[in-house]
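[Automated response] Your request has been received and processed.

Submitted sequence:
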Amino acid sequence: MSSPPVTRTPRPSLFPSARSSDRPPAPPAVRLPRLLLRGAATASAALVLAATVLAAGFLNGHYEALRAHAVVAMALGGVLLVQLPAAVLVRRGGGPAGERGPWWPLAAALLLLAADGAQTGTGYERSVGVHVTLGVLLVSAHLFCLVGAWRLALTVPSPAPSPAAAEDGTGRLPRPSGTGTGTGPVEVAS
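Generated structure:
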């Protein structure tokens, strides 16, 4: 007895947005700031992870790792100073046709720069409890910013309103008119 043929359904994508081949390529004015932001976010994440490895080495008794930890922290501050103007450029003209890009890279760059300054200050003050706690939070924040920077599309999204939203001209989806049958009020279970 033979079994029926197996039909495979395609797996859902982790990123449900349209394929990049469906979108027109972004003009260089939009693409370059996002590439700079990705590069700076990647460098800052690599440096903050290197700083944690060096801090662990120092805590394990390798006292020369403390100097390398301080050098990496200074390099991280320099990379964050590069990330800030990249985030400004993404915000200023990061969208299609020169419209504003997302606001979060700029806010994240400002907060990371301020937190990195506080982190450096607590390190030189030898406030180990605050320094380690803030360091853990900074590693998480840098990794979240890294993921967010790489999720920014390098292509211009094509606006495709849904047919139901475009019917009334407001751009909103229609309200449900019933419980599924099309008649009667909508009941809310409490």
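Summary generated for your ticket: The chain has a mean pLDDT of 78. Residues 28-59 form the longest helix (32 residues).
If you did not submit this request, please reply to this message.
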